TrEMBL record:
<protein>
    <submittedName>
        <fullName>N-acetyltransferase</fullName>
    </submittedName>
</protein>
<feature type="domain" description="N-acetyltransferase">
    <location>
        <begin position="2"/>
        <end position="165"/>
    </location>
</feature>
<dbReference type="Pfam" id="PF13302">
    <property type="entry name" value="Acetyltransf_3"/>
</dbReference>
<dbReference type="InterPro" id="IPR000182">
    <property type="entry name" value="GNAT_dom"/>
</dbReference>
<dbReference type="InterPro" id="IPR016181">
    <property type="entry name" value="Acyl_CoA_acyltransferase"/>
</dbReference>
Length: 167
């Protein structure tokens, strides 16, 4: 069964394994170290993931991915950026959609966030399809907004606005 929980020390080896798979990390932020070491995993577990809105995706309590919503600051504090990654062997099974739905439900019911957005590299149609499945709408295509692996990419910006209460 898929569930969300905080990262735990027992996740270290799986975290290292997943985040050293270039098929997983190719579209993630370059702020994730490569190669990903035990020291990186320890920092993530003890400090980096310590937010109510950063969760480990687990299957039968084994780490298989991550989903997060990072709230903006100052005048952007009612917006937040969605992020996610999943071990390759679990792709195309609806797991990320389920995990993101669970976290987004908590975001929209337990926080003051009204807009969640995500940037997607133009070469990642699977992620665009996932966001659309979650109800996100494309806001813009930002030309040459990403520079990774010594080349420029267009970034597709998607957003989801908190559903209005029907009361």
């Amino acid at each position: 069964m898929i569930s969300l929980r905080d990262f735990q020390q027992q996740d270290t080896e799986q975290l290292i394994s997943i985040l050293n798979d270039t098929s997983v990390t190719q579209f993630l932020s370059s702020k994730i170290p490569s190669p990903y070491t035990a020291s990186d995993a320890n920092w993530w577990i003890t400090e980096g993931s310590k937010s109510e809105l950063i969760k480990a995706i687990t299957l039968d309590d084994q780490l298989i991915g991550c989903v997060s919503v990072i709230q903006g600051e100052f005048e952007f504090n009612r917006s937040a950026e969605l992020g996610y990654w999943l071990a390759k062997e679990y792709w195309q099974q609806g797991i990320t959609a389920k995990a993101a739905t669970m976290l987004l439900e908590a975001v929209f019911t337990k926080t003051n966030i009204v807009r969640v957005f995500a940037y997607v590299c133009e070469d990642n149609p699977a992620s665009m399809k996932l966001l659309q499945k979650l109800g996100f709408k494309q806001d813009a295509i930002l030309k040459n907004a990403m520079f990774k692996q010594q080349q420029f990419f267009n970034a597709h910006l998607f957003s989801l606005i908190k559903p209005h209460n029907k009361n």
